[in-house]
Amino acid sequence: MEPILTAKDVVKVYHNLSGEPFYAVSHVSMEIERRSLTILRGRSGSGKTTMLNMMSALDLPDSGTITCEEIQINVPDEKIREQFRRTTIGYIFQAVALIPIMNAYENVEFSLRLSGYQGDYRERVEECLTKVGLKDRMYHMPYEMSGGEQQRVAIARAIAHKPKLIFADEPTAELDTQTALQVIKVFKDLIEKEDVSIIMTTHDAGLFDVGDVCYEMEDGQIVGKYVTGRNNESK
Questions:
Q1: One CATH from 3.40.50.150, 1.10.260.40, 3.30.56.10, 3.40.50.300 for 1-88+163-235
Q2: Between β-strands 221-227 and 89-92, what pairing exists: parallel, antiparallel or unpaired?
Q3: Which of 102, 179, 203, 211 is most buried, by the most CB atoms less than 10 A from its CB?
């Protein structure tokens, strides 16, 4: 089966005050399989978030190509990239970033309005909140919820418009281990039920083997690729 997203020889360079180059991402290639949970793991500064932002069209690489279903998304036309972000992907941030004056239902509904979703809003919002286990909490405000519950609202918001890809930047960083594993379980359930692919970053060694594929990043490069249930292969 063809991967849903492919990155080839991607480079992102920054320059310090003296003009010397710093390679945040250096010639990285990877494939994101359909209906899979892909982990980008590495310490702070390893390049994983930079890579995530380029694959989700939030940022542009300096060279290399990123394609989603054979459509190149690393193009300078912001309208094309904005359309990709609005319709094809969902994004979950480390800081949950729920709108504090809206309850769970309203937070998810708002994302549908932004995306231009054409279906029944109420039906889809209730469906998404039920799938993340918050059917009985949909009218609660963010301050009335635990950190794990807020993150599940953020997940419901990210999947509401039926994207093909979900990008999650350190979604478990502020959670305890048990709650983090609950979020991972929600991810895996959604892959099955929503026919979605999920890419998440983490620095947590305890989450090393929870995905279908794990790319280990260090100093802007992939230093290992690990596939669940198989021998690992270094790159």
A1: 3.40.50.300
A2: unpaired
A3: 211
Q: Which residues contact 84 (CB under 8 A, 6 or more apart)?
A: 57, 68, 73
- Three-class SS state of 3: coil
**Is the CB of residue 11 less than 8 Å from the CB of residue 74?**
no
pTM given for the model = 0.90
Residue whose structure tokens are 């260090």: 218
Tokens 């193009």, located at residue:
75
CA distance linking residue 59 with residue 102, whole number of Å? 29
pLDDT of residue 176: 87
Q: Residue with structure tokens 């997203």?
A: 5
Cβ atoms within 10 Å, residue 192: 9
Residue 234 predicted with pLDDT over 50 = no
Tokens 């292969």 found at: 233
Give per-residue pLDDT as tens, 59-73: 999 999 999 998 999
